[in-house]
Amino acid sequence: MKASRTAIALSLLATGALAIAACVPAPDSTPAPSPSPSPTPVTQAPRPEPTPTPSPAPAAAAQFENWIDAPRTAGNWRYRSGSGLKVAEYVGADKEVKFQMDCSPEIGMLLSVAGDAANATAIQFRTESTERLVPADAREGWVQAVVRPTDPLLDAMARTRGRFAVETPGLSTLYLPPWAEVTRVIEECR
Question: Tens of pLDDT along 113-139?
Fold first, then answer.
């Protein structure tokens, strides 16, 4: 029995040695490439001149399925009065007046959009309940329209849900909130 244990031990030892030897990689048997007698020169094609990358086009204005979903134009209303002056002005984030509602007892409510749009002949007003194209004149950096102080368009601007839109050809559309200054200038003009 002792002999068989010795034989088994030797057999296991030999098997282990073979297993370890199997883990060693075989030597590389591929022959080394022979040097060619005369290397063939490689010609490279001339590099093309880099083409200038065009400037990206300005981003198109976002389109909304419904204008009332457009974000409000950045800015705030302010009211000014004195010496017969009654004005509600929408001042943009750049501190410039973008839109103005000026009560003039002699002519009515002057609605003015800031900007140079020499070809503008009308201003489109959109509210929740009313849409109206009002004839306008372009003069000295403004496009101006006049409506009677009792015009229902003014009431629609004061009572619209969320905002009203002021569209002038050649200028950015304004989406303005109907804050208290709008109602105040309308009521004081009547």
Answer: 999 988 899 999 999 999 999 999 999
Question: What one-character DSSP code corresponds to residue 150?
Answer: T
Cβ(152)–Cβ(161) below 8 Å: no
Tell me if 164 sits within 8 A of 127, measured CB to CB: yes
- Cα–Cα dist 104/71, whole Å: 31
Domains recognised in the chain with CATH numbers = 68-189 (2.60.40)
DSSP state of 56: P
DSSP state of 32: P
CA distances from 175 to 42, 45, 104, 178 (A): 66, 58, 24, 10
pTM of the model: 0.65
**Element (DSSP H or E) covering residue 47:** none
23-51 residue pLDDT tens: 555 555 555 555 555 555 556 666 666 55
Kindly state the DSSP code that residue 36 receives in the 8-state scheme: P
The residues near 78 (Cβ < 8 Å, ≥ 6 apart) are 88, 89, 91, 181
Q: Please check whether residue 129 is in contact with residue 144, taking contact to mean a CB–CB distance below 8 angstroms.
A: no
